[in-house]
Amino acid sequence: MPELPEVEAVRQLLLPVMRSRRIERVTLHRDGLRRRFDPDFVDAVEGQRVNDIVRRGKHLLVQLGSGDVVALHLGMSGDFRVEPKGPLPDERRQKHDHVVIEL
Protein backbone atom coordinates (compact mmCIF):
# COMPACT_ATOMS: atom_id res chain seq x y z
CA MET A 1 0.00 0.00 0.00
CA PRO A 2 1.41 3.43 -0.89
CA GLU A 3 2.80 5.50 1.95
CA LEU A 4 1.79 9.11 2.62
CA PRO A 5 4.70 10.67 0.66
CA GLU A 6 3.74 8.62 -2.42
CA VAL A 7 0.09 9.69 -2.16
CA GLU A 8 1.18 13.32 -1.78
CA ALA A 9 3.45 12.99 -4.84
CA VAL A 10 0.50 11.69 -6.88
CA ARG A 11 -1.63 14.62 -5.68
CA GLN A 12 1.05 17.09 -6.72
CA LEU A 13 1.29 15.48 -10.18
CA LEU A 14 -2.48 15.43 -10.73
CA LEU A 15 -3.20 18.92 -9.42
CA PRO A 16 -1.78 20.99 -12.31
CA VAL A 17 -3.40 18.66 -14.84
CA MET A 18 -6.86 18.61 -13.25
CA ARG A 19 -7.35 21.88 -11.34
CA SER A 20 -9.79 24.27 -13.05
CA ARG A 21 -10.49 21.73 -15.80
CA ARG A 22 -13.98 20.46 -16.63
CA ILE A 23 -14.72 16.73 -16.51
CA GLU A 24 -16.09 16.01 -19.96
CA ARG A 25 -16.66 12.26 -19.73
CA VAL A 26 -16.38 9.47 -17.17
CA THR A 27 -16.23 5.85 -18.33
CA LEU A 28 -16.64 3.03 -15.81
CA HIS A 29 -15.19 -0.32 -16.83
CA ARG A 30 -16.66 -2.21 -13.88
CA ASP A 31 -19.61 -1.90 -11.49
CA GLY A 32 -17.55 -0.76 -8.54
CA LEU A 33 -14.27 -0.98 -6.73
CA ARG A 34 -14.48 -1.50 -2.98
CA ARG A 35 -18.24 -1.01 -3.29
CA ARG A 36 -20.64 -0.41 -6.16
CA PHE A 37 -20.63 2.96 -7.87
CA ASP A 38 -23.68 5.05 -7.09
CA PRO A 39 -26.04 4.84 -10.11
CA ASP A 40 -25.89 8.65 -10.40
CA PHE A 41 -22.09 8.88 -10.12
CA VAL A 42 -21.33 9.57 -13.79
CA ASP A 43 -24.15 12.12 -14.14
CA ALA A 44 -23.05 13.89 -10.94
CA VAL A 45 -19.40 14.17 -12.04
CA GLU A 46 -19.60 14.86 -15.77
CA GLY A 47 -19.63 18.56 -16.58
CA GLN A 48 -18.19 19.55 -13.20
CA ARG A 49 -15.07 21.67 -12.81
CA VAL A 50 -12.28 20.41 -10.55
CA ASN A 51 -11.66 23.07 -7.89
CA ASP A 52 -8.91 21.32 -5.96
CA ILE A 53 -7.36 18.00 -5.00
CA VAL A 54 -6.51 17.56 -1.33
CA ARG A 55 -5.05 14.65 0.60
CA ARG A 56 -6.64 13.23 3.74
CA GLY A 57 -4.47 10.42 4.97
CA LYS A 58 -4.04 8.04 2.04
CA HIS A 59 -7.12 9.33 0.20
CA LEU A 60 -7.16 11.96 -2.52
CA LEU A 61 -10.28 14.12 -2.46
CA VAL A 62 -11.26 15.77 -5.73
CA GLN A 63 -13.35 18.82 -4.85
CA LEU A 64 -15.84 19.65 -7.60
CA GLY A 65 -17.53 22.92 -8.46
CA SER A 66 -20.88 21.49 -7.37
CA GLY A 67 -19.55 21.00 -3.84
CA ASP A 68 -19.42 17.22 -4.32
CA VAL A 69 -16.19 15.39 -3.53
CA VAL A 70 -14.84 12.31 -5.29
CA ALA A 71 -12.65 10.17 -3.03
CA LEU A 72 -9.76 8.33 -4.68
CA HIS A 73 -7.49 5.69 -3.17
CA LEU A 74 -4.51 3.94 -4.73
CA GLY A 75 -5.26 0.63 -3.04
CA MET A 76 -2.46 -1.92 -2.93
CA SER A 77 -0.87 -1.20 -6.30
CA GLY A 78 -3.03 1.43 -7.99
CA ASP A 79 -1.90 4.32 -10.06
CA PHE A 80 -3.20 7.27 -12.05
CA ARG A 81 -2.01 8.07 -15.55
CA VAL A 82 -2.34 11.17 -17.66
CA GLU A 83 -2.85 10.37 -21.34
CA PRO A 84 -3.01 12.63 -24.40
CA LYS A 85 -6.35 14.22 -25.21
CA GLY A 86 -9.03 12.01 -26.70
CA PRO A 87 -10.74 8.74 -25.81
CA LEU A 88 -8.48 5.96 -24.59
CA PRO A 89 -8.39 3.37 -27.39
CA ASP A 90 -8.96 -0.22 -26.32
CA GLU A 91 -5.44 -1.21 -27.36
CA ARG A 92 -3.95 1.32 -24.88
CA ARG A 93 -6.36 0.51 -22.07
CA GLN A 94 -4.72 -1.63 -19.41
CA LYS A 95 -6.32 -4.43 -17.39
CA HIS A 96 -6.75 -2.31 -14.28
CA ASP A 97 -8.00 0.90 -15.91
CA HIS A 98 -11.28 0.76 -14.00
CA VAL A 99 -12.31 4.42 -14.37
CA VAL A 100 -11.34 6.76 -17.21
CA ILE A 101 -11.87 10.50 -16.68
CA GLU A 102 -11.61 12.75 -19.72
CA LEU A 103 -11.00 16.46 -19.09
Describe the structure.
The protein has helices spanning 4-18, 41-45; strands at 25-28, 50-56, 59-64, 69-73, 99-102. The chain has 2 helices and 5 strands; from the N terminus they run H-E-H-E-E-E-E. The relative contact order is 0.26. It is globular. The protein has a 3-stranded antiparallel beta sheet with strand order 2-3-4, covered by helices on one side. A two-stranded antiparallel sheet has the order 1-5. The longest helix has 15 residues, at 4-18. With 103 residues, the protein is an alpha+beta fold.
Name the features:
3-stranded antiparallel beta sheet, alpha+beta, 2 helices, globular
Please render the helix and strand layout as text.
Blueprint: H1 4-18, E1 25-28, H2 41-45, E2 50-56, E3 59-64, E4 69-73, E5 99-102
Antiparallel strand pairs: 1-5, 2-3, 3-4
**Percent in strands:** 25-35%
- Outline type: globular
- Report strand order across the widest sheet: 2-3-4
- Rg from C-alpha positions? 13 Å
Number of helices: 2
Residue runs with pLDDT of under 50 for 5 or more positions: none
The major beta sheet can be summarized as: 3 strands, antiparallel
Please count the beta strands (DSSP E, at least 2 residues each): 5
Short overview:
With 103 residues, the chain is of the alpha+beta class. The chain has helices spanning 4-18, 41-45; strands spanning 25-28, 50-56, 59-64, 69-73, 99-102. It is built from 2 helices and 5 strands, in the order αβαββββ.
